[in-house]
Write a structure and sequence with these properties.
314 residues; alpha/beta; Spore Coat Polysaccharide Biosynthesis Protein SpsA, Chain A; nine-stranded mixed β-sheet; 12 helices; 9 strands; 17% strand; disordered N terminus
Amino acid sequence: MSPEGSSLTAPEPRIAILLSTYNGARYLPEQLASFEQQSFAGWQLIWRDDGSQDSTIAIMRDFAERLGADRCREAACSGAHLGAAQSFLALLPEAAHADAVAFADQDDVWLPEKLARAASRLRYAGNSAYLYCARQYLVDEHLAGRRLSILPGSRPGFPASLTQNIVHGNTMVMNRAAADLVTRLPGPDGTVHDWWSYIVVTACGGHVEIDPEPVVLYRQHKSNLIGSPPSTAARAINAIRRGPASFMAMMRRHVIQLSKFPELLSEDAQRDVQRIERGLRGDLPRRVHALTCPGLHRQTWMENLLFRLWFMIG
């Protein structure tokens, strides 16, 4: 999977940047400028608006007119309000021509080497599903006060992906095989597009790489949809505050949705999904059996203890 062990003649991928906008006029121009400043030139921006009522659409159409349709185009599905996750997932079929897709948030700023770092890895994935993501610089609304995002301590994989999202959607780039899987396996209601992509790629036997180098300036402000905790302790505290109900409901929806597409899952994932689904709807012995599923854990002992408690009480 690494460049060192692969042919140097692999072609550069064509990357479709998928941007969902919603009342983003305040920060959008800086993000658009960062696309133009990418050292990797082989990109096309495909955007859909999710029902903006500010000047977002005008900004985007001016940008598209200046760059031209080959460089920037509005998605045919643009306009209806779907919510962020479904808006991003709706963009995937629009990029069927691209070798890879990159999700982009409207209020971030990409560092110049962001796409180049992803492209250098995607070139060697071959036909296997491959998801690249990276660390971020967490910054304030004025792009000041850089702090590195948390680097996961455990390797990404399945079924760990069911318990926790450790990929940053605003850094994510998926190759054609991975994007096709996510397109074929629609996310359930309430999911988040980056978490669902991570689940699908790992459940279907794909590879996930987390680059330790930051590639994005990730604004932390009041309008953030999710935001990023500054530490693992803060992440655990946030989970406690949210409580078990929403987490367990989302886990059930993810597992049930995967169970509808067994032909796309790896053999190990098929067994894991069956075992976890029986645990989620079964009695105490079945829950205990599900928790012994190899790899079903979160990143830290504190988070894992909380997860196991919530799973046991249902």
